[in-house]
Design brief:
This protein has about 650 residues and is an alpha+beta fold. The protein has a four-stranded antiparallel β-sheet. A four-stranded antiparallel β-sheet has the order 12-5-14-13. The radius of gyration is 36 Å and the shape is extended.
Length: about 650
């Protein structure tokens, strides 16, 4: 019934959802009588889901939204969502974030006097066919019974509150769209961008052919930097000094003694217990699964011939290198080392522990691999690997653990010193370094950067972009070991100083001169009758590609705008160039061309698409501003408790 009602009075909503990327999806869905929102949550999580500027998003709102969001995904994927899928998709957080966004938009709508009025809610109800058969309202009693029993609301007031929110959000979204004006010129440019293309045949003279002969002076580097500063802009950035307990450095300094190794061996001897073992030499004549009988017969004949060679005295290692299809042992002359009983395919395993020692087996057929020929050099009963066998492994394990212990203890000791007497500046902070902990500094990095020397570390980035210069953070784990960060500096988006990017600018300036030289060299092949003649004169083979303003052009990287503009401005058959591109210089001939019809009605649809996209962008920007200015309190227990609940259902 809810589906019938919603389909009739929310047609505008569903159309709007397609425009604004399903903002409200997950809040009002179809209740098909499958049990309603989940029950049985712990009472202490029901106090609230979130508080936004003092207004509460109730647990009931969250619970309903999460339930119907899951049902929506199940309809989309045509299968029930497992707890693992729900956890991997992060649905609880998605729903909480969406409810917060909804609350922010409702608050902004109230500020702009766009909230739904009682009359608008009443009219919405009167448009529901189920409640208004033959255009006449069913009355309060049936209305109450319908919204509480059929739709699952606690009261008509709760239902009407939800209708009010939906109407308000529609009005807000409509206001965003109606505030936008897309000029005909912009529409025409977008229509051409997505519709026009040209097929060209071209000759590319690579700039790399000239780069080795090009030199740039300091003055040329500075001039290039001044005229191309847009290439050297950066976003908001941070720079960090950090104390690092480098695990690799500590590990290299640790050499466990023989006594320590033996003690570790005795304490962990059960870890080195092994089943029956055989030292095996192996040759595999591979037969793919499902191979024709003729191929199998050929492989078998080859295996039998090899057995005869080996039994006649042929060198096993030489034969294995020349014939074996086992990549793990063929390069070692077929030597597999010690093989544990029960770890190989059944026919091989049986033969390995039954054929006489130091004899060549008959070909052994396994379905998975083909024909095996083995020679067992030695067998040993179940037991323990000797100390000498595992000495290297023990030494590595102990060095690894001891380095982690030292890193943890030393970085913890320094963190305690910092809490007792906070360093006054970065120099005093760096002075805390010692023989186990080093002081290091990062380059400037942005939120999405991989930090040189530390790699991608979201915990460090999150701290750095929430801290102030001079702040000292808690211990953070990195792929190199635990560290303590100190925020050296923060800077807004801008242009990098030449001293920071000189090497890049110098290379860019050199390549620009190389492109100029490439264009001059290619111009010597002109004039020409066609592109094939240019190819012959320049001794560079011609290639073909299709160019358009939509971005990627096969065969080229970087900004292809000059090439695309030239190709679209030319006529079919025209020979044009040289045009400078990232790779060098191009001369091309237009073979085919697709241009838009000036009288086409499709421009209108592109205009509407652009307006919808700009409305989405405007909504995103609005929410970013509202979130930045808002006081938001999320009940984190809702997402934290999701994982244990899911595991309990396994």
């Amino acid at each position: 019934m809810l589906k019938l009602m919603r389909d009739n009075f929310q047609q505008l909503k569903w159309a709007l959802l397609a425009v604004v990327a399903a903002f409200i999806v997950g809040f009002v869905y179809v209740d098909m009588g499958l049990g309603g929102p989940r029950q049985g949550k712990e009472q202490d999580t029901r106090a609230y889901a979130a508080r936004v500027n003092g207004e509460t998003v109730s647990f009931r709102e969250y619970e309903r939204a999460l339930y119907y969001t899951e049902k929506n995904y199940e309809q989309m994927y045509r299968q029930a969502l497992t707890p693992e899928m729900i956890n991997a998709m992060g649905l609880p957080k998605q729903v909480l974030d969406s409810l917060v966004d909804q609350k922010l938009l409702l608050q902004e709508a109230r500020r702009l006097h766009l909230s739904a009025t009682p009359d608008e809610v009443r009219n919405e109800i009167l448009r529901i066919p189920t409640l208004n058969p033959d255009g006449k309202f069913v009355g309060d009693e049936l209305y109450t019974r319908y919204v509480t029993a059929s739709l699952g609301y606690q009261s008509p007031a709760e239902f009407e509150d939800e209708l009010s929110r939906e109407i308000t959000l529609r009005k807000m979204e409509s206001a965003l769209q109606n505030s936008l004006v897309i000029s005909p010129k912009a529409v025409d440019a977008e229509y051409r961008r997505v519709s026009e293309n040209a097929k060209i045949k071209y000759v590319l003279y690579a700039a790399s052919r000239e780069a080795t002969n090009v030199q740039v002076s300091p003055a040329e580097v500075e001039q290039y930097y001044r005229t191309h500063q847009a290439q050297y802009t950066h976003g908001e950035q941070r720079q960090v000094k950090y104390l690092l307990a480098d695990l690799a450095r500590l590990r290299s300094q640790i050499v466990p003694s023989e006594a320590e190794l033996m003690k570790r061996y005795q304490a962990s001897k059960e870890d080195f217990k092994h089943p029956a073992q055989a030292h095996i030499l192996h040759i595999l004549i591979r037969v793919p699964q499902g191979a024709p009988a003729a191929d199998d017969a050929t492989a078998k004949a080859k295996a039998e011939a090899i057995v005869k060679q080996l039994r006649a005295g042929a060198d096993f290692a030489k034969v294995a290198r020349e014939n074996s299809g086992d990549p793990s042992s063929s390069s070692k002359g077929g030597d597999m080392g010690w093989v544990d009983k029960g770890t190989t395919v059944a026919p091989f395993d049986t033969a390995a522990f039954t054929v006489p020692v130091n004899t060549i087996s008959d070909p052994i057929r396994s379905t998975e691999f083909g024909y095996h020929i083995i020679k067992v050099l030695e067998r040993r009963e179940p037991g323990y690997r000797s100390f000498d066998e595992v000495r290297g492994q023990l030494a590595s394990q102990m060095a690894e653990q001891m380095s982690k212990d030292q890193a943890r203890d030393e970085i913890t000791r320094i963190a305690a010193r910092i809490k007792q007497a906070r360093p006054a500046n970065d120099t005093a902070f760096a002075a805390l370094a010692n023989d186990k902990v080093t002081s290091n500094s990062t380059l400037w990095f942005a939120k999405n950067d991989s930090i040189p020397g530390l790699g991608t570390n979201q915990a460090l980035i999150a701290w750095a972009f929430s801290a102030k210069p001079g702040d000292i953070g808690d211990i953070i784990g990195t792929q190199r070991g635990p560290m303590i960060p100190y925020l050296l500096g923060a800077r807004n988006a801008g242009v990098s100083d030449l001293t920071e990017v000189r090497a890049k600018v110098e290379n860019d300036a050199r390549m620009e001169k190389a492109r100029q030289a490439a264009a001059a060299a290619l111009a010597k092949a002109l004039p020409a009758k066609n592109i094939d003649e240019v190819a012959a004169k320049s001794n560079i083979p011609a290639s073909e590609t299709t160019v358009s303003h939509q971005g990627y052009v096969s065969g080229f990287s970087g900004d292809t705008t000059p090439l695309v503009d030239a190709a679209m401005a030319a006529k079919v058959g025209d020979l044009k160039g040289p045009v400078r591109v990232t790779e060098g210089a191009v001369v091309f001939q237009v073979e085919e061309q697709k241009k838009v019809d000036p009288k086409s009605d499709e421009r209108t649809s592109y205009g509407e698409m652009m307006r919808q996209q700009e409305a989405r962008n405007l909504r995103t920007a609005l929410l970013q501003r509202l979130r930045k200015e808002a006081s938001i309190d999320i009940n984190d227990s809702l997402t934290r408790q999701q994982a244990p609940q899911q595991q309990a259902g396994l």
